[in-house]
From TrEMBL:
The keyword Signal applies. Residues 1-21 form the signal peptide. Residues 55-121 form the Transcobalamin-like C-terminal domain. This is DUF4430 domain-containing protein. It comes from Gracilibacillus thailandensis. Keywords: Signal. Pfam families: DUF4430.
């Protein structure tokens, strides 16, 4: 009986030590889709799907995949040469999953199955 208890304890101890020794972490990946349009010229600039690490900022996704311009204080001003024009009230806006987002692209962290739409449009 002592041998069975000893074998049982050794098995549990080995399992616990193996679990504690596995320090590798695998970052969760999320799938997102991104649509970019210029409403002032009725042009679709891009429609792409991406797989990125969970917690990635939207700004990082844009900067890694497109030619973008962002001000020092985090405002998106251009994507692929399509520039906002403050004198004509033309600005970039974006929605996530059909809802307007009220945070900057540096603060928005993408989530699995996000559908994000950027529109360059006249704001009245």
């Amino acid at each position: 009986m002592k041998q069975i208890k000893r074998l049982f304890m050794i098995t549990i101890l080995a399992t616990v030590l193996t679990a504690c020794g596995n320090t590798s972490t695998t970052a969760e990946e999320v799938s997102i889709s991104l649509t970019i349009t210029d409403q002032t010229t009725n042009t679709t600039i891009s429609e792409d799907d991406f797989t990125v690490q969970a917690g990635t900022s939207l700004q990082t996704v844009l900067e890694e995949n497109y030619d973008v311009e962002v001000t020092d204080d985090g405002f998106l001003t251009a994507i692929e040469g399509h520039q906002q024009n403050t004198d004509e009230n033309i600005f970039w806006t974006y929605e996530a999953n059909g809802e307007m987002v009220n945070e900057g692209i540096a603060d928005y962290q993408v989530e699995d199955e996000d559908h994000i739409t950027f529109d360059l449009q006249v704001i009245e």
